[in-house]
């Protein structure tokens, strides 16, 4: 009887729902890598200093650290005929698509227009991110969310592949525009916007949220929601410090990742000599690995333990970054194709280890929370990850200005090593814990 009960607790009845909800994550996975790869290149039309480009690239993260909690809380309290998350999704995602399509066009106009477009894009994109993330736990039972999260991460990886491997090739296609004439480095963005609009339409048609009134219990919980700084103080004050150390660890590995990510496209064009359309394929290798290994990495951690799996993956990342640091020197005499291919292979390996860290760290933090503090721990996860995104790009850009591009990968290694050491102080969060 117990075995029969376990068999019923599978994602089988929720595959279609999870897939459709994943369309929201798909839109983010489509926009983010194209934005991260090409916006630094567009800004480079007007700005020479990588440190200043890195500073502008933190704009979306500065907005995210405020807008994600605010709009998540607003959507918690929203009650409409189409649900509480859907009103934000069907309004803000199309607005994001509009400004996303305009980014490369304004890049040919002026720096002011480009920055205004980036600002408007990031307001709408970061405001909708919270409701998009919250839609899955609204629709999928608690005991199935880890498996559902793997499916959704896979869809994000597929979107990254579509954006960086396929759509990015359109950046080499020349188009004729009024007042601009024949130009390239444009087409991928508006085409991606069309995919975003299609995803929103499918979400709206097929995903039906519950339409319910706020219960007295929900009202009590909303009043008890603690602000992020108070939540952080509560975690620091805990006698057992595992939650604090995993938050510090994720701060370090996101500092490493967010420092490298905005400059990979520039690195491939300026150091490896790729075209604009090929530049995003480097991030595409990470996306391919992400899509393939999101679910297997979660299953592996369930068998071997999350802490061991994450620390092992961090060692793998450190080794890969060291090889990338040496890559331009070791491959200097190689043919262009082989040189580029080995770089892509290293980034594919990076993606395997990175998705292993990301897939298992959030469930590990959730495991340390109880029913009343899950929201607090979720907010802290985003607070630390977005803080890293604000801190890192200007630091990494400054390092490349001073010491050249190889310093970018040493920078990443230092923070990944710090994350590995901090994870040794984490003693909770395993799947076997009650």
CATH superfamily of the largest domain: MFS general substrate transporter like domains
Number of strands: 2
Q: What number of structural domains do the residues give?
A: 2
Structural class: mainly alpha
Mean pLDDT: 81
Oligomer: single chain
Distance between the termini: 22 Å
**How many helix segments?**
17
> Helix amount, in percent?
over 70%
Q: At the third CATH level, what is the topology name of the largest domain?
A: Growth Hormone, Chain: A
Sheet of most strands: 2 strands, antiparallel
Describe the protein's architecture and organization.
This protein has 17 helices and 2 strands. The protein is mainly α. The protein folds into 2 domains: 14-209, Growth Hormone, Chain: A (Up-down Bundle), CATH 1.20.1250.20; 225-434, Up-down Bundle (Growth Hormone, Chain: A), CATH 1.20.1250. α2 packs across α7 (145-166).
Short description:
This protein is mainly α and 434 residues long. 77% of the residues lie in helices and 1% in strands.
Features of the shown structure:
Growth Hormone, Chain: A; globular; disordered N terminus; mainly alpha; 434 residues; 77% helix; two-stranded antiparallel ribbon; 2 domains; 2 strands
What layout of secondary structure does this protein have?
Blueprint lengths: L1 H7 L6 H29 L6 H8 L1 H19 L8 H22 L3 H29 L5 H22 L8 E3 L3 E3 L4 H19 L9 H9 L3 H9 L5 H29 L5 H4 L1 H24 L1 H25 L5 H32 L6 H30 L2 H18 L11
Antiparallel strand pairs: 1-2
Helix pairs in contact: 2-3, 2-5, 2-6, 2-7, 2-8, 2-11, 3-16, 4-6, 4-16, 5-6, 5-8, 7-13, 11-16, 11-17, 13-14, 13-15, 14-15, 14-17, 16-17
